[in-house]
Fold each of these.
Amino acid sequence: MAQIVLFHSAYGLRPAVHAAAERLRAAGHQVTTPDLYDGRTFDTVEEGMAYKDEITQDELLRRAISAVAPLLTPAAGATAPADGLVYAGFSLGGALAQNLALADEHAKGLLLLHGTSDIRDDAATGIPVQLHVAEPDPFEPEDWLNAWYLRMRKAGADVEVHRYRGAGHVFTDPDLPDHDAEAAERTWAVALDFLAELDG
C-alpha cells in the first residue's frame, strides 16, 4: 500500500479526480486529494488557467506544500508513511507533484498524468517516475519532453514515459472533450502496476 497525494489540474478538483482517487483506494492505497482552488472548478482550460494565474504559481505551490505537510509530520497518534509519499498529479497538478517530490528526500515515487515541470540543474533524486502524456500534446511539446526526460535522468530518476497517440491533453477525464476512454484505461492499468511495484 502506498500513501499517495494526488493534485488536480488547472480545471480544479473535478469528479474525475475523485474517481481516480477511488480507483487507487480500491487497489489498496491511501489517497489524499488537496483542493488548491478552494472549491472552484472549471469546464474549459482557458478559465482554469486564468484562475491559476490569478492565484499565481507561487501561491499554488505554497498551498500544495501546506496540504502535504500534515502527511509528512502527522498529528499525535498518527503515523507518517514508513517509506515516503508517492506524489501524483494531473497536468498542472503533475507539475506541482514533481516540484514537491524532487524536494522531498524521502519521496517514494512520482506519477505524472499529462504534465511535467522544469527541473533545477542541481536536482538529485533516485525515485521511480512514470509519465503518461498525449502524443502530440500542445502543453507538453516533443522538444520539451525530450529535454525533461534527459534532465530527469541526469538527476538520477528512474523514468518511464508512456505516450498515447491521438489522445487529448487531459484524456483521463471523461467529462472533458480531451477524453479518450481507451487511453485512459491503458493509463490506469500501467499506473496501478507501477504503484504495486513501488510497494514490492
Amino acid sequence: MAAANLRPTPSSASVSGRMSRQRRRDTAPEVQIRRLLHAAGLRFRVTWPVPGMPRRSMDIAFTRAKVAVFVDGCFWHACPEHATKPVANSEWWAEKLAKNQMRDVATNAHLRAAGWEVVRVWEHEDPRTAADRIRAIVKPVVDSV
C-alpha cells in the first residue's frame, strides 16, 4: 500500500475516540428523514447496495421508482457551507475528502446511467424540506405504477 494511503497517527486520543464513534448509517438526519417519508406513506429500502458498485450503498432506496437518496455528512463530503479542514494530518485529510467527493460523483453518474434519479441531502438540511423534496420526486412515479 502506498504511504499516502496509510492512515496517519491520530492527533490525540480524544479525536481518535470521537472519529471512531461516528455512525456510518442510521445517523440522526437519516432517521428523521426516513420517519417523515414513512409517515407520508412511502416505503423504501435502507442501506441498499448500489447495483454494480461493490461496497457502495444508498442510504434510502425507492427501488420501484429507481430513486436513490444519500444523506451526506458535512465533514465527510466537504459541504460547501460547513466543511472544515483539519489542521492535524491536513494533507491526508484533504486527499481523503477529495476522494470521497470523487466517489460521490462517480456513484451519481453510475446510477443515472442505470436509469436512477439521485437525490443528495446535506445533514444540515431541514429534514421536512428534504423529505418534501424526495416525496415530490418519488410520489408521481409510485402513483403511476
Amino acid sequence: MNILIINGHPNRQSLNFGLAEAYKKGASRTNANIQEIVIADLAFNPNLAFGYQQRTELEPDLLEAWKKIQWANHLVWIHPVWWGGLPAIMKGFIDRLFLPGMVFQSRENSVWWDKLLTGKTARIITTLDQPSWYYWLMYGRPSVNQLKKATLEYCGVKPVKVSYFGIVKTANELRRQKWLDEVYELGRKQQ
C-alpha cells in the first residue's frame, strides 16, 4: 500500500507532528510505502485568487504534492480544529490543489460530476480542545464535514474514517502517550 501522510499543523512542536510520526512508525512496521507532506513547509500562495474562473499556475511544491496524492492509495490527514475548522494553510492547500479537472470534473449541462480520486481511502486524525461528542453535538463537526464529505468523498475518496483526540489543552503526558499509541496502531494496521 502507498500511504501519504498530510500534516496540516503549522507548528513542528505540536501534538499533531507527534501523531504523524506515530502513524509513520506504525506503518513502517508493515510493507507499506510511505511519503509525507508537511503543508507548512511548502512554498505556495494559499489564496485561490481567481476562484475557478482563471487557473493560477501551481508552484513546484504543489506540483510535487499532487504527484504524491496521485501515487497514494491511502491519504492520512492530520490537523487541529481551530475555530471549528481547518488551519488556514491547510484550507489554502486544498483550495489551490483540489481543482476541477484534477480531483473532480463537472459534466456538461448537468448538476453531476465525475469523481477523479476514486480507488483511494483516507483517515482523518484531528485534535480538539473539547470533547469530540461536544464538537459533534454543539457544532456538527464542521471541519470533518468539510474535509470528509465536501472534499474527499466529493472527489471519490472512500471510505474516509475519522479519529478524534482531545481535550488537548488539559491532557497530561499519560493521556498524550495513549493517543500516540492509538495512532501507532492505526499506522500498523494501515487504517
